[in-house]
Amino acid sequence: MTALQRLPGELISIPQVTADLLELARTGETREPEFYRRLFRIGGCSAPEAVFEDLGVAGFFSARPPGVALTTKGHRTLLFTSGALGATSEGIFDELRSIETTLHRYELVREGMTSRFIKGLLTEPGFQRLYICSPWINLQKDDLGRLAVALDKARRTLARPPEILVLVQTPKIPELRKSLEILKGFGAEIAEKPRLHSKLYMREPGPSGGLSLAIVGSENLTRQKWLELGIEIRNDSRTLSKLRSYFFDVFGSPGGE
Q1: What are the distances in angstroms from CA 209 to CA 95, 124, 127, 142, 168?
Q2: What is the CATH architecture assignment of 3-101?
Q3: What CATH class is the domain 105-251?
Q4: What's the pTM value of the predicted model, to 2 decimals?
Q5: Please, are residues 71 and 1 in contact by the beta-carbon 8 Å criterion?
Q6: Which terminal residue of the chain has fewer beta carbons within 10 Å of its beta carbon, N or C?
Q7: pLDDT digit string (tens) for 189-243?
């Protein structure tokens, strides 16, 4: 297909058009409609007026007298287009975070971090594997119920059952042993490590996609009792990969190491 035959969506994938529009989106500058029509015409479009109108209907532009400006939707679309043209995914994601606050990757968690993790399995489903690293595990009734419901939903929607991997110290009291038995009933694979002190709660998405998340902090998977602090990490593939490697290093190590 030649440039003259391109559809509007294909037109913005012309590198120079994408670059020029992205620069306008980043600065938030307003331009007269004729500016955009001229840009499309230079890019090889034989009907720039129709292209401009179609993109406007699609939410690409918004009126900002005396002209029009690119919308957040337009900015986001152009970023994805730039990725297809070779821009780095890290740079695209960082820019997306600047315009989409829901994509912020790090957040301090000052209380209830384990309950927050379990509640998230219901509010943001789509996990395939859970990692639980906690020296002491004593699931409370509410969190136990939420976990059971989340796992049941996952089993009904995933092609294969969700996995649960657990790192824990060897329990010394019956109450803690009971929680491990409940997790085993959910299908968890459990490794007991007498020297374990780290706390990490992590989830991986299923084959259809979803949220990648970890919470690292001071709180055990028990009743909240102390002042705690942690950090939630979302969709940072490099950091999450390192945390996953740490988990498997400990999980597969012999004895209490």
Answers
A1: 21, 11, 8, 27, 28
A2: Orthogonal Bundle (1.10)
A3: alpha beta
A4: 0.65
A5: no
A6: N
A7: 999 999 999 999 999 998 878 889 999 999 999 988 889 999 999 988 889 999 9
